[in-house]
Short-chain dehydrogenase TIC 32, chloroplastic (Capsicum baccatum), 345 residues
Amino acid sequence: MLRLITGRPGPSGFGSATTAEQVTHGIDGSNLTAIVTGFMFNLICIYLIERRSLLMKSLRVTGGASGIGLETARVLAMRNVHVIIAARNMEAADEAKQLILKDNKDARIDILKLDLSKIRSVKAFADNFKELNIPLNILINNAGVMFCPFQLSEDGIEMQLATNHIGHFYLTNLLLDKMKETAKSTGIQGRIMNVSSLFYQVTYKGGIRFDKINDKNSYQDKLAYGQSKLANLLHSNELSRRLQEEGANITVNTVHPGLILTPLMRYTSLSSKILRVFTYFMWKNIPQGAATTCYVALHPSLKGVTGKFFSDCNEHKPNKLALDEAFARKLWDFSNNTIDAALKT
């Protein structure tokens, strides 16, 4: 907590006050290609907001012009990485691309459509990416939705789990062979990051309600969000274990970006605003919020480091449930079965 408040660096030499540019200083990623998903990071679902029309106008600003998705893409491009922005809103993604190019005319930025809440959109994105016939070194599975009222995706899956976990799980599986192929042909270790949250500890009793995922009556938005974030962590750990067993030259880690102040916070409830006043020392700005993701994606000191959880650019030990291998395997099977069922409908 003291490091969080003061910004004092941890063992890595970086801390909560470090920015994405600082953690990547001097790194040349000109031989790397990265996909950054979930470009509307950390948005509260629009259904929570009474002023819906005003929020819709601000979405473009929050997700593109000032979100950590943009900052992550911008800094990676600054370090000469070829960045593929995966976004549901292509207009917002193109605006983000133009903003990056305005400051860095040599940036290599492409955009592809991806709606993580839809299984078939994930499949289409993977197919479209493969058609580009380019390597894939880095996959950053950014977050999706947060604190949604109960709703089902078009595939009949509770929306927060569908977007934050199932979509990324399926996308990762579809792109894994490409990443293995790239790592083998180039000799460069691939890196996969799942963006989770310390909120993974705030979930339903037992962690993940496999038999009640779509139970509307007992649904609680914050616990459902924590459930999806726990799923991110379990996914990373199980995938890391499987790749190590296989001997694949790919690492998998989980990232907590921190509490990020974005323009969207203007529209949160009065109680949330009061809470922010008393927890102001815990909140990060956007360059700080993108730091841990960029650190895990690019820093040479993390070569070979896998199956870890990072917060404030330093390793953080998760709780016992997040490290439970049997529980992670159960989630793995549940996720595959859920996707298979969705594809059959």
